[in-house]
Amino acid sequence: MNTIISLSHLDIEKAREVTAEFTNFLRMSFNFQNTSAISTFRKELSIVRSFLSIEKTRYGNRLKVIFDIDQDIDFNLPPLMIQPLVENAIQHGIGRKRGGGWIKLIAKKETDHQYVVKVEDNGAGMTPEKQKEILSPGFDRVGLRNINQRLKYFCGSELEIQSTPDVGTAVSMVIHNHESADISVS
């Protein structure tokens, strides 16, 4: 909202564009008519693109976004699994790096029923101790831990975190879809 307010004084057309992206982000993130515990990658990607559009406006040239996504890929997954990873990469990685950096969203089909989603950044990185801490039950921020618990429950896998201080972080998840998991989403 602060970005939109600032833009309204400087560039009304850009403020309108960012407001439209923010509206899409809210609509897609909080679709209360769909009570399904399942979403699709395409829907989640739309949320991520809207979020990134807003963040690109905020960070300007300090944020470069790279997409490496298999063509025509789509699969079921729990909702809001990807956007928080992207948000963390920006907030805790790029936002803490002088001069900014890049984030990369990767989505690949590994087998007929297995997909890999990875969010990489060349931001601040973290120590091995911090990597273990953020997924532990006693950690006070619930974002990654919540994603990890839902990933275990719905997909039988866990987040994998690779990070090096001052180099960057990669967080990946494996999504297992079986025919019985292919639920139609409205």
Automatic annotation (TrEMBL):
The keyword Kinase is annotated on this UniProt entry: yes
EC number: 2.7.13.3
Database matches in InterPro entries: Bact_2-comp_sensor_kinase (IPR050640), HATPase_C_sf (IPR036890), HATPase_dom (IPR003594), Sig_transdc_His_kin_internal (IPR010559)
Keywords in alphabetical order: Kinase, Transferase
Parts of the chain that traverse the membrane: none
Domain Histidine kinase/HSP90-like ATPase: 73-179
Pfam family, one: His_kinase
Gene Ontology molecular function: protein histidine kinase activity
Protein name: Histidine kinase
